[in-house]
Amino acid sequence: KIGSLDLRGLDLLLSEERTGHFRTREAVVQVRNRERKLSDLSAVTAWQDGVAYFADLKLDEHVAIDALSGGLAGSSALTLRAQACGGYVYADLSEDDAGLTKAAMRFLNFSLEQAAFFAGVREEMGGTVDLAKLTFNGDPGQPLSGQISLRLEAKDFSWRKTSFNSVADGFSMAGRRARINECNLRQKGNNIDLRGTVSLPTEPDAWRDAPFEFEIDADVGNVRGLTALLGSPWNALSGGLRIEGKGSGKASNGQGWLKVRG
Question: Which pLDDT tens digit goes with each residue over 107-131?
Answer without folding.
Answer: 999 999 898 888 777 667 889 999 9
